[in-house]
Specification:
Elements: H1 31-56, E1 62-69, E2 75-83, E3 89-97, E4 103-112, E5 119-127, E6 134-142
């Protein structure tokens, strides 16, 4: 029969001294390593966010839908306004959708602001393959 000490909690394993090496202290942490990993992770996320912003986000190029008219079985006319840098130009993607939401036509149009102006109002006909229900401006980007 083995000897039981009164300081050992019931159910806790009893290891022979020196057999399994030294046990770790329960409160020992590595805060420097953890802080370094968090800093690297935040830097990586910042780089990804910056790259996506440069690729997809252009706050200087903002499209505003005015109206869509002239709906027939083969077209819709879209009126829209684009805010862009003074004297700049943008390529805008227009889309026509049917009543069930399917895309039935799209068109790309390049608009250019006069020198010193920041807004351009444009009208573009979007050819369609079926009767459209709505015309819309999806996005505007800097002209290539």
């Amino acid at each position: 029969m083995s000897e039981t000490h009164t300081t050992v909690a019931p159910g806790a394993p009893v290891f022979p001294p020196g057999r399994y090496g030294r046990r770790r202290e329960p409160g020992r942490r590595r805060p420097v390593l953890r802080a370094l990993l968090v800093a690297v992770l935040l830097a990586a996320l910042g780089l990804v966010a910056a790259r996506l912003y440069l690729q997809y986000g252009h706050p200087d190029y903002r499209a505003e839908m005015i109206t869509y008219t002239g709906i027939t079985d083969s077209r819709v006319v879209v009126d829209f306004r684009v805010t862009l840098p003074p004297g700049g130009s943008a390529t805008c993607l227009l889309r026509a959708r049917s009543h069930d939401g399917a895309e039935v036509g799209h068109a790309e149009v390049t608009v250019t602001a006069r020198p010193g102006e920041r807004q351009v109002t444009a009208r573009q006909e979007v050819p369609t393959t079926a009767r459209p229900f709505i015309g819309e401006v999806l996005r505007c980007r800097p002209a290539a």
